[in-house]
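Attaching the record inline, Q. Sequence:
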Amino acid sequence: MPVDIPRRSPWTNQKLVLIALLHREAITRFGKYKLGVLWMVVEPLISVIVLGLLLGPIVGRTAPDMPYAFFLLNGFMLLDAFSGPMSAGIGAIKSNRGLLVFPKVQPLDLLLARFIFELISSLLAFTFFCLAGMWFGINLSLGHLHILLAAFLLTWLTGCGIGLILSVGSAHYESVDKILAFVKRPLIFVSCVLYPLVDLPNVAQKILLYNPLSHTIELSRKCLFPLYHTGDVNLAYPSAFAIVVLSFGICLFHNQRHFLTQR
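Structure, as predicted:
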């Protein structure tokens, strides 16, 4: 008697593959830490505490419209939403090559799973800190959540686009991860993470406005604290930047997909 094998739509197969890959990613990422999932909250908190103790008096004077701890935390969380998928693209296929023996698993699925995992982790951690801040009496505005979400997603999409480009680059050149580690270090200084944009000289402001992270980080602060002064930031520039980078990354990855799986 023939066995009736259930047929699923391509979308259902894609969803099941991504769920399985996300579950595997969570176990791989947090299983090695004793704190488990709590590590995604503890890690940025440690950075904020250390920099808050070192730079607190300075940041507190230059950002009077919001608590300096939340000022730093906001910048770190969006910077993490950008750098997370950017770093995740490197080695995503190499470290999971064994999964490509399954017909349903495609090379892009391995990257999508890591990108989505980074987004979920960043959003959960950011939401936790916002709720904790409100519980401690910090007056956060919830009237512009759609702009806050747009800033967060644009930051993440830009990181995904660069992550796709780096995934191809790392397949051709093994030193890409070392170069990325060197390039990521100045981001904290050129993305308005440590200081407000309006406190800088006009020349410095014009230079930093070429960085889309300066726009999204400052706008996210403005959403939570309406009295915060942001300067000439907007969503149009980071939107265009994200579309261009993501489109180029997808085209490059599609063109190199056979080379990535044969190595």
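The chain has eleven helices and no strands. The radius of gyration is 20 Å.

More tomorrow.
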